Amino acid sequence: MRTLPSLITLTVLIALVATPAALAQDSFGQRHTQPSHWPQQAPQQQQPQAQWPQQAPQQQQPQAQRPQQPPQQPPQQPPQQPPQQLGQWPQQGGHSQTQTNPLEQLMQMELQELGVPAQSSLKQGELGGPTPTSIPGGRVITTPELLQLLNNPHSGAVVFDVLGSHQRLPNAIDAVAASAGGSFNDRTQQQFVRQLEHASGGRRDVPLVFYCSSIQCWMSYNAALRAINAGYTQVYWYRGGLQAWDYMAQMSAQFSANHAPGHGRPQVQGGGW
Q: How far apart are CA 180 and CA 81, in angstroms?
């Protein structure tokens, strides 16, 4: 199995990179020209020359001149950036003119809107595809929030692996069967309720965390809905799943390589990949 960075190492990483970076913003000004108008000039009288007395002096009408306007320059267009594809995680190692906090990038990806409405009923049929950004009766938890929850020795949080992969979060309990569709009165629900009672010690206020592969996976969504229907009040859906956790592990490894030369990848407490 692959190894994951310890929760303590990941928490230290978050503390060092969580400070929001000031994002440089380009301002595009346009030169405004004054509206054209005709200036009024006082009429100038021409000095009369020697004229016969019977002729009246003639006045010359002034000719108005249009003021010259500065040439207009086309407004500058902001540089176009390639659109981000659905489910695509930010790449590491690159440097752009606008520096973005990698932790903020990760959270934005975990909360990416995919145009799918939340539902309180179990997802039937295919469980792969875009997911909602919320879950009725529960809440979405991001990777930094999950690390904070797991590092709290008084939280008593229980993590459930609903994917069944060889990759697994520390101390996660297998709950793949709870990903099935069906109803909240089927046999799967009854068996899952007994599993929840055993894992939570009979307490309905214990934080329960459910995850699968990524924001393109409904398996953990169904399991979280089953726990909510069973009456548990602190149900957390880790929408980013293993993909987000692995991205954080890569950030931790890169941080360790940059700040602690010679050290290998840290070991996991209580389980591994």
A: 40
Whether 191 is covered by a domain: the verdict is yes
Number of H helices and E strands in the chain, helices first, is 6, 5
**Cβ–Cβ under 8 Å, residues 218 and 128:** yes
Q: What is the chain's mean pLDDT, rounded?
A: 75
* CATH at residue 139: 3.40.250.10
> pTM value?
0.65
Residues 64-98: b if buried by 16+ CB within 10 A, e if exposed: eeeeeeeeeeeeeeeeeeeeeeeeebeeeeeeeee
Specify if 29 maps to a domain.
no
Q: Identify the burial level of 44 via C-beta atoms within 10 angstroms of its C-beta, where 0-12 means exposed, 13-18 middle and 19 or more buried.
A: exposed
The answer as to whether 145 is a domain residue is yes
Residues of the chain with pLDDT under 50: 1-3, 12, 16-53, 55-57, 62, 78-87, 92-97, 265-273
Q: Number of structural domains, the chain? A: 1
- Domain residue limits at 183: 1-14+134-273
Asked if the structure places residue 252 within a domain, the reply is yes
Phi, psi of 173 (to 5 degrees): -100, 140
b/e burial code for range 237-254 (CB count within 10 A of at least 16 → b): bbbbbbbbbbbbbebbbe
